[in-house]
Amino acid sequence: MSNEKPKREEGVATKERPKTKKPRMFKVILHNDDYTPMEFVIAVLMQIFRMDETDATQVMLHVHRSGIGVAGVYSFEVAETKVAQVLSAAKNHEYPLQCTCEPE
Ligand code: TYC
Fold first, then answer.
1. How far is the CA of 9 from the centre of ligand 1 (A)?
2. Which long-range contacts (CB under 8 A, 24 or more apart) does 65-71 make?
3. N- to C-terminal Cα separation, the chain
4. Cα–chain-centroid distance for residue 16?
5. Closest Cα partner for 29 from 37, 40, 38, 41?
6. Which of 60, 64, 26, 61 is nearest to 44 (CA)?
7. 3-state secondary structure (DSSP) of residue 100
8. What is the pLDDT of residue 12?
9. Looking at CB atoms within 10 Å, which of 5, 38, 68, 82 has the fewest?
10. Which of 23, 69, 78 is nearest to 48 (CA)?
């Protein structure tokens, strides 16, 4: 019989990382074009991205001047839905507005 402690630790392995993974986030990006009216882009930003008129105008002008801009950052499912809503609204009005999403 021996009182020696085992040389290696025994028991159940546990992860140090907590189980709750934070989801990857996705930027929803608006693209400039020459035909979509500024007012329509502002309305899209207010209705689909829940911005007030001041923020919507700022984001629209940023896209207008620099070619591209982030409308919001969401989980994949929400980002995908926002893109589909923008493209559907643009199509209904026959505007060429483009919207994409990409990982943050
Ligand atoms: N460039 C457009 C215009 O002059 C306005 C515009 C802004 C279009 C943002 C698209 O994502 C866009 N009417």
1. 64
2. 66/32, 67/31, 67/32, 68/29, 68/30, 68/31, 68/32, 69/29, 69/30, 70/27, 70/28, 70/29, 70/30, 71/28, 71/29, 71/30, 71/45, 71/99
3. 60
4. 29
5. 41
6. 60
7. strand
8. 60
9. 5
10. 78
Would you say how long the chain is, in residues? 104
Of 78, 57, 59, whose CA–CA distance to 68 is shortest?
Answer: 59
User: Candidates 29, 33, 66: which one to mutate for ligand 1, based on the most atoms within 8 Å of Cβ?
Assistant: 33
Question: What would the pLDDT profile of 20-50 be if each residue is shown by its tens digit?
Answer: 778 899 999 999 999 999 999 999 999 999 9
